[in-house]
Please model this.
Amino acid sequence: MRWLKFTASGKTSWGIVEGAKVVAVDGDPFGEWQRTSRMHSLGDVKIELPLIPRTFYCVGLNYLKHLKEAADKRGEVPAVPDRPEIGYRAQNALIAHDEDVVIPSFATEKIHYEGELVVVIGKKVKHLTETNAMDCVFGYTIGNDVSERSWQKADRSLWRSKNADTFKPMGPWIETAADLATMQTIVRVNGRETNRFATGDMIFGVVPFLIELTKYFTLWSGDVIWMGTDGASPDIKHGDVVEIEITGVGTLRNRFVREGRLAPVP
Model:
């Protein structure tokens, strides 16, 4: 099932995507809901963020190729992590499918993207085990982890390089029935493929992260965990459009525009 948050005729609601249509529901997928008779063409609605997470978790260096490329750039030998490690991102950075990533006017040209699987938590849990960890997963969506690499290199934290306004596109919907073993992540810039990798080919998969997280934190319904990426990206320019497709989930599309410049026609 594909759950979509959308706006049509001035009203924002949840809906279920069925082919090229979206069926509006009363209620929400994390509680009680009921199908309605209201139906819209998917192309006629404004796709909203699927949710605003209570806590926005993220995973770094969770794919071997990405880890090696990062180490090579620093002239270091890659150090493969021996346990799952978690970071955070800021809610203010989130934008929806087809909304613009705004590059600050004073940013450098080192603007990069990363296509990531996003795990959506469906219920309150703590102290998960290997046996029951996946029971809390409601579904999956897609994230684009945008970074300003010169800021990332200059700062002691990721406060601006990854958390500037609009630097975290997420969407377009939540897919509840995806098979991690068969999924591919495919990234395109202006229609040209720039990266492809097996989505599930992680150093640590979803279950180890859920177990590690819930040793210390309570996960709540609507929390999200961005699971990292593989490979590297070229520098993004004003007007570029990045599409991140995860097979079995969907495609997240966003245009990049530099602040203060006229936005190109999509």
Helices lie at 64-74, 149-154, 206-216. The CA atoms of residues 83 and 204 lie 8 Å apart.
